[in-house]
Design a protein that fits this description.
This protein is an alpha+beta fold. It is about 20% helix and about 45% strand. The strands form three sheets. A seven-stranded antiparallel sheet has the order 3-4-7-11-10-9-8. Strands 1-2 form a two-stranded antiparallel ribbon. Strands 5-6 form a two-stranded antiparallel ribbon.
């Protein structure tokens, strides 16, 4: 088997529902967890990282994750979407961008950010993008604890770079 064939077997294209957008996940490192149906008609698809054990500074095992918030038939603009999602879970932006990895060529909005989770009092860092494709609003968020972010940053940016 060639290296290219093995790479194709190890990668899974994930189509984002209601869009023509896909991302690539290393199928050996990422697992689908579940789908949540929200009252507003949107769905959240959760994937978690199992590539290796990620342990934070307190010795707790961390499950870095990918969350896809998908709202088909969305009628607002990208900034309304970002604001609405921000109101659901406020965060501090470390960087905001409108071009680059994780954003489709047709445009979007991206953040590198942090927040403190009130339930476990841990600080989390994430890369998050918002875009609208064919009337479907998408928030893609890759997240882990602040002290394990450097360990996961390459993996997160690799996934963002596959957005098509």
């Amino acid at each position: 088997m060639t290296m290219a064939a093995m790479a194709m077997l190890a990668a899974a294209q994930v189509g984002i529902p209601g869009t023509q957008t896909t991302i690539r996940l290393n199928s050996e490192d990422w697992r689908y967890l579940r789908t949540f149906k929200l009252d507003d008609g949107a769905d959240i698809y959760l994937y978690y990282y199992i590539g290796h054990t990620v342990v934070d500074g307190e010795g707790d095992t961390v499950l870095p994750f990918l969350r896809l918030y998908v709202n088909e038939g969305y009628d607002g603009d990208i900034y309304e979407l970002a604001y609405d999602r921000y109101m659901q879970q406020p965060f501090q932006s470390l960087n905001e961008y409108t071009h680059g990895p994780g954003l489709p060529k047709k445009g979007g909005l991206g953040y590198d950010g942090v927040y403190t989770n009130p339930s476990d009092q841990k600080n989390y860092r994430f890369l998050m993008t918002y875009f609208i494709d064919q009337g479907t609003a998408v928030e893609m968020r890759l997240e882990t604890t602040v002290d394990t972010y450097e360990e996961m940053e390459f993996e997160f940016k690799d996934i963002l770079g596959t957005l098509k």
